[in-house]
Amino acid sequence: MRYLALLKPLLMLVAALFGIFIGGRQIYVFLTEKQPAAFTAENFAARYSGQQWVSVTGKLAVDARAVMPGSGNFANLYVPLVPAAWQRQEPVHVIVGVDSVPAGGVDAWAQRAASQQQVTITGMIRPLGGLNYGYVFPRLKFEQPTITINENTEPHPPWGMSVILAICLLLGGMAAFWIARVLRA
Known about the structure:
Layout: H1 2-32, E1 37-40, H2 44-47, E2 53-60, E3 66-69, E4 74-82, E5 91-102, H3 106-115, E6 119-125, H4 133-136, E7 141-151, H5 158-184
Parallel strand pairs: 1-2, 5-7
Antiparallel strand pairs: 2-4, 2-6, 3-4, 4-5, 6-7
Helix pairs in contact: 1-5
């Protein structure tokens, strides 16, 4: 029964730590990366060194896209961003999480995107890694570094994230106190 009493505070502690990680990361990126790091799809693998706010120029491999159900009437669309002369047997390093595509408009989006020879995608890298790349794109080859960019995103200002970070720190402290109290009983 004692272990069951630990369930709520442990879940609260995990949630607080997750919020601390996300909030701290956003503040760190806002303060250290004043502008997105610029890459091309050709030089990304050689030049990328952990930046969180990036701008990558290349060609969208629209034929290799993955569409997943989203919320409401929107689809989650993921598209490899590759060098202009890319072939399917070559590795992929950048996946773009496309911003707000209506579920019924994926084909129209794909036609527009396929007509563009080169695009520049700017955004934040997904904080906890990307997708299960081999599962979502079973016919593509991936090599490190591999990132997923959330299109059209940027670091949040620290004042808003500071409030969230403070709340998470408070919840984490409360959870730790609660756990200690249960363990002492």
